[in-house]
């Protein structure tokens, strides 16, 4: 049989069975897709898959779901989607808004939060790529540094690489992940506070104070990472989510204090990174803004929502202490580009 005839036969077989759910059939199709048959046939097979997953549901009608008068402001995020901004002035409406975003996306997605003082023109870019022009080279250099860190630092050696990246970001290193939390009040705290920083002694020193902006923003983001393959690591077709409360020991206290999660989009081709690969705005399903004065009144002087509680010092946070001891110090330029294990003050 000619190779071309064999390819055509394999193509017809795979295309006619690709939506069968049994593992044996799917394993055979994966083998065909990884073989050297013509790429045209591979593309046609992939196109034949039927997705039974519902699309993410952007919240557009929350103003109709509450008795309060909710101001709605049109807004377009960087990926081109229209996502209205809801101005919320009652804490019960904020709780309902978060619940509504989660509930409407519950069939196929989990929804988590992040607080911001600005919407940054609708962009949602991981810290590593912000301001970078050569995304591919930036990613390559980062992976090299990550591997070196894992090989050299005792505190990181025993962890899955998929956990190490989120863990070091949570203490100040710039990575390819987006920070999320699973607590509305922690998310709001970050939206209500501004961080100012200086590089001193090879470390970034952060100072948190009340925001001077008019609004705090709560961004709701959806992930298809629902399957827990390893403790605390959830995989989806498009994204990976790491729940640091499960993935790392409790002596990394900051991760637990903040109800911390890290979200990563799966790159299509790490050897050719595009703006689309590093923009996470297509995962946003809801945006709320809260007047800063009102938000600060809600939080008050609660010690559970303070710098000392959300960023426990190295005296209490053993993981943080070891990261401070072991993670290398760089010059100011490198520290600005790559991040450092931070020192937090209030």
Please state the average pLDDT score: 90
Strand arrangement in the largest pleated sheet: 1-2-12-7-3
Main pleated sheet: 5 strands, mixed
> Measured on Cα atoms, how large is the radius of gyration?
22 Å
Let me know the number of strands. 13
Give, in order, the helices and strands.
HHHEEHEHHHEHEEEEEEHHEHEHHHHE
Low-confidence stretches: none
Counted by DSSP, the helix tally is 15
Overall SS class: alpha+beta
* End-to-end distance: 74 Å
As an assembly, this protein is single chain
Binned, the helix content reads: 25-40%
Strand content: 15-25%
Shape: globular
Question: Please, could you describe this protein's structure?
Answer:
There is one protein chain. With 346 residues, the protein is α+β, with helices and mostly antiparallel strands. The protein has helices at residues 3-17, 23-33, 39-48, 91-104, 135-152, 154-157, 161-170, 184-192, 244-247, 253-257, 275-278, 292-299, 307-310, 318-326, 332-338, and strands at 71-73, 85-87, 110-116, 178-181, 193-200, 203-210, 215-223, 227-230, 233-235, 239-243, 260-265, 284-291, 343-345. A five-stranded mixed beta sheet has the order 1-2-12-7-3. The longest helix has 18 residues, at 135-152. It is globular. The N and C termini lie far apart (74 Å). The relative contact order is 0.15.
